[in-house]
Amino acid sequence: MTLEEFKHRYNLMILPDDTGPVISHRLRQAAVLVAFIEQKQELHLILTRRASHLRAHPGQISFPGGKVEKSDKNLEATALREAHEEIALAISNVEVLGQYPMFNTFTGFAIAPIIGVVKQGFNPILDPGEVDELFTVPLSFLLDPANRVVKHFMRRGIQYPVYFIQYQEYFIWGATAAMIDRICRQISYNG
Question: What pLDDT score was predicted for residue 19?
């Protein structure tokens, strides 16, 4: 899928809202940058592996992002700031396409997925306090429904879908995999 086709599909194909069960307790606000970059004439999704020494979600695959700070103008600013801090992606090097509905997790976060495209290649510099590794996954791999698995689990009497994606040695699951699944279904949606 080319960058132009991706933008076209992203802008025209809207899925019904299926954000899942509403979680009643107070959620901490966060935002992530779901960033696509063109490599060798193919779109790739940028992902990171969180530092293994972190208290929350150590070693898990995630998007660049984090908690909202008081100085952030909005959720988009949070995602762009965090991507700059974590992987040295310049804010001016991202074309923001939009924001998905908030994604609530049972771990206590309301996450705003900010969808963007990296305008030109960049030299990632990882913040060792937050990120152990940056890698990309071809969008063509993610678009294949056979590569995205969902299973349902019960927690405190509520059934939750949990998403899984295995790409090479990377095991992507949870909120990150769910957001990837949603965008893949959106840009593949035929009505």
Answer: 46
